[in-house]
């Protein structure tokens, strides 16, 4: 099969399109013929070597496709089922394998591209709003990069929870997207000090929670945007790693909470994964959750897709199509 494989860590030029053996599903695993694979910033972190991986390897964890083989002990899937997952091994390929307990059958009402687009970013937005800091009616949330893949979904889910959303974006064009999906206030970070504006918009009180997938450029000012005992949810580092922090800072800024979640612990047990994925599919089918497909690239152009994301051009989901 064809796949995108990484032999050396580095820039997007290290991604190579080549022939590799088809993966074989082991016990408890399912293999799918990939129709669409989702791109995520964690893929870029893996490519750069920020997270340990043994070289060479195939990137990608998110895809939707047709089941063509199942491993020993798998009873939830049959050959021919359409399935989606955010836990695949090597989704940048024509075929990929995933744990069956981290995959779900896709309803007919959901397209393969939408299913691939929503699994990782949608589940991330779901656990952030429903579990990491469970938003309640009347809460105020600051959401950075609100026009990005996770950001757009998180804004919409936060509004479903009854929260007031203050969004930040990097441009006027992206600010318009954030407004269209329901953000109550939008701050363009390149034009104004967002921490000062947040304090103005909240009458000096600050917000209950900051959802920060940007990282280095926004983290410290995000702490300044919180009300006493507010929570900083740092779930990404698109602008770079956050510098080490003396916990005493959290005390000085109002007994703040700080957490750095990742998706894995929010998918266990399987019932929790199914709850999140089923909610997302239901909302999309009913039209209460909009998915913006920003751009698609053929599999062989994965390097171009990575460059597109790294340039900060994305205003929705980027997919690879096989």
Class by SSE composition: alpha/beta
**Helix/strand order:** EEEHEEEEEHEHEHEHEHEHEHEHE
- Tally of DSSP β-strands: 16
Radius of gyration: 20 Å
Beta-strand percent range: 25-35%
User: Domains counted in the coordinates: how many?
Assistant: 2
Number of helices: 9
Largest sheet: 7 strands, mixed
Low-confidence stretches: none
Bulk shape: globular
CATH class designation of the largest domain: Alpha Beta
Overall average residue pLDDT: 96
Q: Roughly how much helix do the residues carry, as a percent range? A: 25-40%
Per CATH, the superfamily of the largest domain is Medium-chain alcohol dehydrogenases, catalytic domain
Distance between the termini: 11 Å
Judging by the overall fold, what is the CATH architecture of the largest domain? Alpha-Beta Complex
């Amino acid at each position: 099969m064809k796949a995108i494989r990484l032999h050396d860590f580095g820039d997007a030029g290290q991604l190579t399109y080549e022939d590799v053996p088809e993966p074989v599903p082991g016990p408890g695993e399912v293999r799918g013929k990939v129709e669409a694979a989702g791109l995520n910033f964690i893929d870029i972190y893996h490519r750069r070597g920020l997270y340990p991986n043994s070289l060479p390897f195939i990137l990608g964890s998110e895809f939707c496709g047709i089941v063509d083989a199942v491993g020993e002990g798998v009873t939830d899937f049959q050959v021919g089922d359409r399935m989606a997952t955010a836990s695949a091994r090597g989704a940048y390929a024509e075929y990929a394998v995933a744990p069956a307990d981290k995959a779900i059958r896709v309803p007919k009402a959901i397209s393969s591209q939408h299913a691939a687009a929503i699994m990782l970013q949608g589940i991330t937005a779901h656990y952030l709003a429903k579990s990491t800091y469970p938003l309640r009616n009347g809460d105020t949330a600051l959401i950075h990069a609100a026009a990005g893949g996770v950001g757009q979904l998180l804004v919409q889910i936060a509004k479903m929870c009854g929260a007031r959303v203050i969004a930040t974006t990097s441009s006027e064009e992206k600010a318009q997207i954030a407004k269209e999906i329901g953000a109550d206030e939008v701050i363009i970070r390149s034009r104004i000090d967002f921490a000062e504006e947040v304090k103005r918009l909240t009458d000096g009180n600050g917000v209950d929670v900051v959802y920060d997938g940007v990282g280095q450029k926004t983290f410290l000012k995000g702490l300044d945007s919180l009300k006493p005992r507010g929570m900083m949810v740092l779930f990404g580092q698109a602008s770079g790693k956050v510098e080490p922090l003396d916990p005493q800072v959290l005390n000085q800024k109002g007994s703040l909470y700080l957490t750095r979640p990742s998706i894995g612990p929010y998918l266990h047990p399987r019932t929790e994964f199914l709850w999140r994925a089923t909610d997302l599919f239901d909302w999309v089918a009913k039209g209460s959750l909009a998915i913006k497909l920003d751009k698609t690239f053929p599999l062989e152009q994965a390097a171009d897709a990575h460059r597109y994301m790294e340039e900060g051009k994305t205003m929705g989901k980027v997919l690879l199509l096989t």
